[in-house]
Amino acid sequence: MSELQRILYVEDEPDIQAIAALALETVGGYAVKTCASGEEAVRDAEAFAPDLILLDVMMPGMDGPTTLEALRGIPALAEVPVAFMTAKVQPSEIAHYKSLGARDVIAKPFDPMTLSDEVRRIWQGVA
Description:
Layout: E1 6-10, H1 14-27, E2 31-35, H2 38-48, E3 52-56, H3 64-72, E4 82-86, H4 91-99, E5 104-107, H5 115-124
C-alpha cells in the first residue's frame, strides 16, 4: 500500500473545514484540498488525485452519500477510500454509511489533535 499523502476534504461549514484542514496539514503533514460542496468535490477531485476522501454527510445540495455515489462514477476515484464525518454515529447509522461504501465514520465534533491518527487508522484499514 502506498503512503497516505493527499486528502480531499468535503465540508460545507467554514469553521469546521478550517480546523480539520489545519489539523491534517500541521499535525498530520498531509496535503489537503478542501471543497465546500459535493458539486465542487465532483468537479475538482480527479485533478487533485486524493489518496483518501473525507466527506461531510449533511450538506446542502449534494449530501455526502450522493457525493460518494457521484465520485464512485469517476473511474480514477472509484477505489479511493472514503470516510464520512458526521455527528450521526448511532451503530445503525454507521452501518448504513458503511453499506454505501465508506470505509469508516469519524464522529463530530472531532479532536483536532487526534484527527490525523484517526485518518491514518482508517487508511490502514485497522478498525
